[in-house]
Design brief:
The chain is mainly beta and 289 residues long. The chain has two domains: 189 residues, Jelly Rolls, CATH 2.60.120; 85 residues, Sandwich (Immunoglobulin-like), CATH 2.60.40.3080. The strands form five sheets. Strands 4, 7, 8, 10, 11, 13 and 14 form a seven-stranded antiparallel beta sheet that branches. A five-stranded antiparallel beta sheet has the order 5-6-15-9-12, with no helix packed on it. Strands 1-20-17-16 form a four-stranded mixed beta sheet, with no helix packed on it. The relative contact order is 0.19. About 6% of the residues have low confidence.
Length: 289
Amino acid sequence: MAVLNAMAVKTTAQIPNAEFEIWEIFTDWCPPNHSYEVPDHWRGSLPTSCDDSIYSIEKNFDSYPPGNGQYSMIIKSNEDPFGSHGGAFSFDTAYENMNPWRPSFPLNDRPNSFCLFYKYSPVGGDSAGLKCLFFKNGVQIGYASDTVSQDIADWTLTTIPIKYNTSDTPDSATIFFSTYLNAQHTGSKLFVDNLSFNFPYGIFDQKLQTGSLKLHPNPASNIVSLNFSKAINEDLTICIYNIMGNLICTEIIQQNQKQININDLSNGIYIVTVKAKEWIEKQKLIINR
């Protein structure tokens, strides 16, 4: 029997390469033209000398939550005279000598929070900055911002509320991460993965599938059985969303497991998604005790 762990908040995101699974080669313009591996649609800070090759972004061969890809992004700082600042922007071009506080990707809805998984290893009292700006016709109309100062050794979810100063729906956004907020120190590292936005309507606006999966009993109180009309020969990822579209529970279960424990969930209406490598199904679940 699988016991679901509350650990994530994630709905349909419009953030490019939000899971940092697509990487490309970026070559700078300063001889001898150093090349760096960077996530598609993300850029970091270049060194201040053409002779140096210290870049602020690095690929991390670790992803979180499990089963959601292979990589994450590391942002690292360096205080050497010609080192790079510990920053990363959601741009497809380098942000040196340009205004980074401008739209970088389109958005066609009004999210209420910005979510991500992160780890942080500060040096010398550094604090990390997590920021997302929202724009309408090029003018900033909202932001989500948070600061992390403590050492966070394990992957941790943070959900940052978005504050708007108008009632408009943004048409674009920009994300910025920094390993420091004041003087930076060599060695501070910020790990980020699986970015997303929360929307007020969430998963309930998506069409529910009624294929091979059935939940029993439904309504349920403590235990739910997963009944499939086809053979299941692989491990599955189970996610439960609440009525606001927040992913409150998730677990990877083995193919011989047929039950999940819902004791920690309150009465209400939920959506259960079951995900395999090549298919996903959703069912409504009612909890009533």
